[in-house]
Fold:
Amino acid sequence: MKRYRVRPGAPIRLDRVDPDDAFGFRGAKDDARKELERLTARLAELQELLYAEHKHSVLVVLQGMDSAGKDGTIRRVFEGVNPQGVRVASFKRPAPDELDHDFLWRVHEQVPARGEMVLFNRSHYEDVLVTRVHGLISRPVWERRYREINDFERMLTEEGTTVLKFFLHIGRGEQKRRLEERLDDPTKYWKFRETDLQDRRRWAAYMLAYEEALTRTNTTWAPWYVVPSNRKWFRDLFISGQIVGTLEGLRMRYPSLPRELRATRVR
Ligand code: AMP
Ligand code: MG
Structure:
């Protein structure tokens, strides 16, 4: 797993990460399925503990091009967790009142409370990605925003939030296959937007914007993971493994019986 964790400060080069990679699990898809089952069960236990202890909170950021698998990850990795204590926040094109505020305003409102886990389906990173690629902001603005994002995430971590950020890395060919599938499958038409093709045409500009954004916001307190995502089973395994590992590192414990209840228990 460490292989995909880039040292803070070091440049992130997306062309050096193979989206087809399935490191450690080559040719053993069945083992991967079993391992995912084990991890999702473990994630459910840890989330229960997170909720019960009511001390830490967890923010999972999912970014990626259209069809990279943000929705699929949410469905698969978190299928075992208790909906009480887990929430998804999806960030779409900002509404007029949101545009009238600073870019973190709508984001801050959605961060997890103590004991809670929140999954960001897209995030404040759109404000240095789509806005940049579509020419809505200039270099000084996105440069400033990298700093503002780092400060914001540092504040969250200092206040007890664990921040994990995943970039779902797919190849351009894989995206073509997935978008075509959306136009061929009546149960997937709803996912397709004409604008997906406009973004697809700007693939190189997006990769450049991603590389720079990931590099500049890959901090010790809020690390980025570049997830090879052409193979869905590897993507799910990677992300659940990373979240489980991080939650285990928190050394959480169920609250002990309060003093005033000890007598009650004996009685
Ligand atoms: P989807 O994730 O497919 O539902 O699409 C959501 C759309 O909203 C994507 O095209 C995003 O690029 C866009 N979006 C999300 N956040 C922002 C933002 N802050 N500024 C502009 N567009 C955004
Ligand atoms: Mg979409």
